[in-house]
Amino acid sequence: MMMAEQFWTERIHSKDLFATGADNLSWQQAMQQIAALSLYLSDKSVRRAGLYFDDAANFAIALLACVQAGVDVYLPASLSDDNCYWLEQTVDIYLADEITNKLAIPALSVSEWAALGYAAADCNCVNNIAVVLQTSGSTGAAKQINKDWHGLCLEAQILATMLPDSMLKDRPVVLGSVSVQHMYGLCFRIMLSLYLGLPIYRQRLLFPEVLLVTSQTFRNVIWISSPTLLHTLRLSHDVSLAQGHVVAVISAGGVLAQTSKAFLLEHICPNVVEIYGSTETGAIAYRRDQSYWQFFQDVRHRVDETGLAIQSPRCTTEQTLADAIVEYENGFELLGRLDRIIKLADKRISLMQLENKLMAHEWVADIHILKHPEGSHLAAWVALNDAGIQAWREQGRKQLILELKECLAGSQERIALPRHWRFTTALPRNAQSKLNPADVQQAILQPVTQPIVLESKFISANEYWLRIQVPLDLVYFRGHFDVFHLVPGVIQIKWIIELLQQCSWLVQMPLQMENLKFQHFLRPADVVEMVFKRDCVRRKISFQCTMHNKKITSGRLVIPNSESNAL
Fold this sequence. Notes:
Elements: E1 16-19, E2 25-26, H1 27-43, E3 48-52, H2 56-69, E4 72-74, H3 81-90, E5 93-96, E6 107-109, E7 130-135, E8 143-148, H4 149-160, H5 165-168, E9 173-176, H6 183-196, E10 200-204, H7 208-216, E11 221-225, H8 227-230, E12 246-251, H9 258-267, E13 272-278, E14 282-287, E15 294-295, E16 300-304, E17 307-312, E18 315-321, E19 323-328, E20 331-337, E21 341-344, E22 347-350, H10 351-359, E23 364-371, E24 378-384, H11 386-395, H12 397-409, E25 420-424, H13 437-445, E26 452-460, E27 463-469, H14 489-502, E28 512-518, E29 527-535, E30 540-547, E31 550-558
Parallel strand pairs: 1-10, 3-4, 3-5, 4-7, 5-6, 9-10, 9-11, 11-12, 12-13, 24-25
Antiparallel strand pairs: 1-2, 7-8, 13-14, 14-15, 16-17, 17-18, 19-20, 21-22, 23-24, 26-27, 27-29, 28-31, 29-30, 30-31
């Protein structure tokens, strides 16, 4: 077994370790920075450090400096007020890419590291520091999880067994869409890469388009991602950019839909590895080509009425996950969380089973099913893929719901069919593939009346630009536009006035409209550009809505003389 100290001498070579489009950082340079930062921490008698980084290279340097100096590491999941208070009460110093003014404790940003100079690296100085992470668990409230350096080293070692030498011979660059502040990103983007001596791409790649383009810039890459991003990959993306470059896709943080996995296998690469685990337990099991999950070789488990109990050298205190599984001779099937098995009319219903069934439908990209917050029936929040959006536009909402219900009806009792449906183009999952309970409540209970603002910026003092999307489940579609959904002209004008009010160009209602034209339909999921230009002398604001260089709506608003904010 490789000990933690051997990270420093046996697997790391003096080649580029941190790869970016601009600057590559060699291991020798990184080691000098690590040593200098370690000396600084020791000189300041630091015992506990808070780390918050987006740049993977900066994070790794700070982490390894803490290992050398014997400084315990605390990783906040975000810089919320609660987490800032936690850091202020816990750590001696805050290390980050950039310093926030929200923290009243000593801090050191990356821009200040250069002043520390360089020091001779001491490869033999390794301390088994504590590493404290945060997880939201099942409640949504932050919870601290205690790990240590040796445990993270063991995690990297067991994860390395998934990747054969043939996959690693050309030292593929590790690209990641997940944050290094969480267990998944820490173990796969940082620890596994260090263990295998693989270059780490420094920036986090949050969008499929960026992931594809970046893949093309290297000979070989490994993707570290989550179902949240992978579910959004579609043929409308230029997948050819990544073909021939991706040697493996690793997915964790949630269930990867079979349709998404099939898409990856066909269009991206033949090696897709799914990981099952938690922050508390670390990685528990994996699945490649098999239908069933395989426990990692060092994992001991037992199943009882409380769920799945796990213990391993990486998880010495037994941890129980509220997950139901069915074991077979050649692996196990994951049925989902026990708290997602509910009773309706004395019938036991697995919400995850319903979700898995609908995820197999050709129209569905993502889904969350729950008991309606204000009733005893089920509600479904569904993200449609391109095919589903096309069906929505051509057949209408009612027909689409009927089709999805029929998909469930063959295997489910009538009571298990959702009665309340909400549709969108993407569920707002976080980096751990979880949904905020408040977002779920709002989606189910609040009618959709506003456009989705994707981008907005002031081009100049008198020109304002936005990119917006028409929601699928816009309440104004129902009734007169129930089959052929389109945004009524009066609603378009309502949105224009409200958008101008939000950017403070308009307070009162306009006096009148001039030269108003509706030239093409505005339909569900359409993404359009809005441009507002104001003429302060003539007291008018012109607007134009376009899509693919095609004009949808245009006109002018006449502003009241008393409208001071518009001038």
